[in-house]
Amino acid sequence: MINTRVRIKELFQKDFVGKSVTVMGWVRTFRNNQFIALNDGSTNTNLQVVLELNKYDDLLLKRITTSAAIKVEGLVVESLGKGQKIEIKTNSIEIFGDSDAEKYPLQPKKHSLEFLRENAHLRFRTSTFGSVFRIRHSLAFAIHQFFYEKGFVHIHTPIITASDAEGAGEMFKVTALPFDKTPRCEDGSVNFKEDFFGRATNLTVSGQLEGELAATALGEIYTFGPTFRAENSNTARHLAEFWMIEPEMAFCDLEDNMNLAEEFIKYIIKHAIDFNREDLDFLATRLADEEKALPQDKRSEMGLIEKLEFVLNNSFERITYSEAIEILKESNYNKKKKFNYPITGFGMDLQSEHERYLVEKHFKKPVILRDYPKEIKAFYMRQNDDGKTVAAMDILAPGIGEIVGGSQREERLENLETRMKEMNIPEKELWWYLDTRKFGTVPHAGFGLGFERMVQFVTGMTNIRDVIAFPRTPKNAEF
Ligand code: ATP
Ligand code: MN
């Protein structure tokens, strides 16, 4: 057994002064042949390890380099130095693994996020990514806790799916057919009958349809799983593989849905503020530093923590899509032709620049848009009485844009079937979905929250590639 270590986080939290302990971790820096800054991943703060002068031979000292993995035994003492309460006076040092300073890609200095993306296998070892991934973990836990407290059932929906009718995005095909000698039908098309599942399959873009099946029996459910979109969007908020949380509730309308989504987002933020303060403080400083390089008008008006507290303490603005179009049409931005996509009126799809205008310039807080034109939304959304709109809602967050997309679902069989015909969605592929409307149908609603966008919002990271360990984006699947 080797694991006799105390985690560094625990050392800082409890009173260990006067006790001998063993710590294990990776060297961040070593200066004056005397001071090691040691990190073991449990906290952002490095532990200062103090070596008695002349106690260790040169050969060992030379091996204490950035990222070397070491074991230290020593006495916890109060620190006289600035910046830390305690430090360790070493008794012994053992090296688990050397790290050749000449070859180790990360130097003990600031690296650009782009550079670290190319070294995603090592970026966990930086302070920034340590904080991001501890927060990401913590938020995932908070999400399960939120639904657990509310009595929702966690459902694992399939990752491989045969339904391609949902229309949420381009899909990745899943096949076991050989690329050469692909079996063909008489008309020349691929014969998927010979494929593994006996039909064409894809990676899921959403667990919603299956989630509805579960919700119309279990009452309230949620999914939390990976989703895939083969869309070629090279933006700072799109991934080809991302994680989505999708609650689905029976006996719920659009308003219940919006209420839950707002409460949910606030719960997650509060959890981060309560339990990840140290990492948040670090990232807040990082963000402020990063923004210093920007022109004044591009900088955030609030610091990261201030922003989170602001969102927590204010209700989200709720307006209809039509009201949003009016606001945008009347805006100076539009009149001065500052939008790349001009505001043409009801029916247009809102671009990210429009969403960001509403949130960042006009309301300066999260906005829930509801009642979108049915033409730009999915077939399953509940048709409003006006005949033009559906009971959809999107939540837009400052700096991110859309963070939640949801709706009340069309529970009336006839309406659903009519809409599916209008949109050329084959009923026979979704027979199982329609069954829920035939047997005990019920008003129900749900939404999808993009987990990475939520993590972006909480951590202040501006690129979505920096909040998932190994991002999958067009032309990029290294690691
Ligand atoms: P967008 O307009 O931003 O592309 P969308 O309308 O395609 O989003 P939905 O299909 O409603 O999004 O998905 C639900 C949620 O999943 C979104 O609100 C967003 O938080 C997240 N999301 C969607 N696409 C992506 C993506 N490619 N990468 C990361 N998160 C995503
Ligand atoms: Mn999209």
Describe this protein with a few key phrases.
single chain; 479 residues; alpha+beta; OB fold (Dihydrolipoamide Acetyltransferase, E2P); BirA Bifunctional Protein, domain 2; five-stranded mixed beta barrel; 14 helices; 32% helix; globular; binds adenosine-5'-triphosphate
The fraction of residues in strands falls at 15-25%
- The largest sheet has its strands arranged as 6-10-11-16-15-14-13-12
N-to-C SSE series? HEEEHEEHHEEEEHEEHHHEHHHEEEHHEH
Number of domains: 2
CATH superfamily of the largest domain: Bira Bifunctional Protein, Domain 2
In CATH's first tier, which class of the largest domain applies?
Alpha Beta
Q: Tell me the number of helical segments per DSSP (H or I, 4 or more residues long).
A: 14
Query: Given the helix and strand composition, which structural class is it?
Result: alpha+beta
Estimated radius of gyration? 27 Å
What overall form do the CA principal axes indicate? globular
Straight-line distance between termini: 31 Å
Low-confidence runs (pLDDT<50, min 5 residues)? none
**Which ligands occur here?**
adenosine-5'-triphosphate, manganese (II) ion
